[in-house]
């Protein structure tokens, strides 16, 4: 079973007039994982797609969506996968890749058959997916946390001590435009991406997970002088337009996966916003 929805692009002028319900309707992805189902949210920002495949009782095939107007999903797209559940397998045109917890896989344009399965139905895999249009074929590559480019930023004193794992980035994997990684906050720290920034050259999607039961994350978005917030729960995602800041603060530490696409592969392509200038 495949479920999909479309989110249209909104300008800063529209967003500043939105109430809570409209803000959530346009940017929050509330459900990504459903047993034995595939769910996609298709954004008109850079034609980005975020989704989840959760095979429990049976394997699930990556199916093309009607709006892609393609014979198969990766005919004109590339795909990034990070497993946030139990151990699983991804079979790509007959080649099988084992994917454990927090391991990533890049699949380039042109791969025709992609099948997802869990090793143990009692501890099923949860494959978080990001996809962007692709103009060229690049080789498939698996990246574990041990292979990642790791950066440690922030401090406990400013409540933003965190480890950034650059997984599917151009220093590790050749891609057309898709970039993905994972940030893990240390105990006692709650702020991510602070100081905040924008980048007009690419959009982004944040997927929050490892949020403890009974805790939440408040995600901040909007222009630096016109911010808005969305309260988010465990294993939910939020779309960040190119003109928007994207930062969050939780009631506990947590982890999140960032995925982005656009015209620039430079990770440090950021227009930084001073904390005291935010409104």
UniProtKB/TrEMBL annotation:
Matching InterPro entries: KduI, KduI/IolB_isomerase, KduI_N, RmlC-like_jellyroll, RmlC_Cupin_sf
Family in the record: Belongs to the KduI family.
Protein name, UniProt field: 4-deoxy-L-threo-5-hexosulose-uronate ketol-isomerase
Taxonomic lineage: Bacteria, Pseudomonadati, Bacteroidota, Sphingobacteriia, Sphingobacteriales
Function: Catalyzes the isomerization of 5-dehydro-4-deoxy-D-glucuronate to 3-deoxy-D-glycero-2,5-hexodiulosonate.
Domain of life from the UniProt record: Bacteria
Record's catalysed reaction(s): 5-dehydro-4-deoxy-D-glucuronate = 3-deoxy-D-glycero-2,5-hexodiulosonate
Leader sequence residues: none
Coiled-coil region(s): none
Gene label: kduI
Cofactor note: Binds 1 zinc ion per subunit.
Species for this entry: Anseongella ginsenosidimutans
